[in-house]
Amino acid sequence: MDFFDKLWTIIEYLILGLVQGITEPIPISSSGHIVIFREIFGVETDGLTFEIFVNFASLLAILIIYRHDIIRLIKNGYLYLFKKEETAKSDFQFIIYLVVATIPVGIVGVLFGDAIGKALGQPVVVGYTLLITAVAIWMIRNLRGRKSDGDLSMKDAMIVGLAQCVAVTPGISRSGSTIVASMLVGMKQETALRFSFLLYIPVSLGTTILEVPDMVRSDAFQATLVPNIVAFIAAFIATYFALKWFMNIMAKGNLKYFSYYCVVVGLLVIFFL
Questions:
Q1: Residues 192 and 43 sit within 8 Å (Cβ to Cβ)
Q2: In DSSP terms, which residues pair with 147 in a beta bridge?
Q3: What residue intervals traverse the membrane (predicted)?
Q4: Would you state the pLDDT for residue 98?
């Protein structure tokens, strides 16, 4: 591979890293957009290694943004579990609900994740699933729930957890499915957003830990290390600013624009790819 081939590979990984980073936190499906961009530009990556790098980059950005919530939950979880401080009870329950909501997608991901990705990873499928995402977002565009962190129930956690399982399908947004479910069970927008992205942390971390050994043993690991690092940096920066922007969008209640976007992109993919 000559210099220009290597440079072009880095540019391709940079673009895909940006796509992953921008689309991960907003409800338009990062996996679906990666499929679309690969099809349009004929970009090929080493698959597993690329996915681990960019997903971990998005995870780090989300950890930084929600660091204060994470520290508070860990502290209060400890205080309630070992000190029995009643003031910390609601945060302890919030942790339990996050754990419960993680279980369904953990089971589905381990048992069927790869098979679903291979079977439904075609652009035309992504087109239709983007339309499904559009309908789901449209349904909750005007909802204003009343439930805060301390008002959640085990039933709410299970519903959101089951909704997250649907996002194993390319084109179904993980953040979209969990935010839609959270708001349908009556959460406030701020609570829905926080629950959705704190729920992303154990799922992404678990996936990364399970897949790192296979990544390191991959023949392509060393050959694509530099492009993957470039994709990692791009995804980290893009995720950070995209999530900050999306938090502002949620506060203003402008979710309908994501529904419009998914309809347009979905139809273009169905008819032209």
A1: no
A2: 187
A3: 48-66, 94-113, 119-140, 192-210, 222-243, 255-272
A4: 95
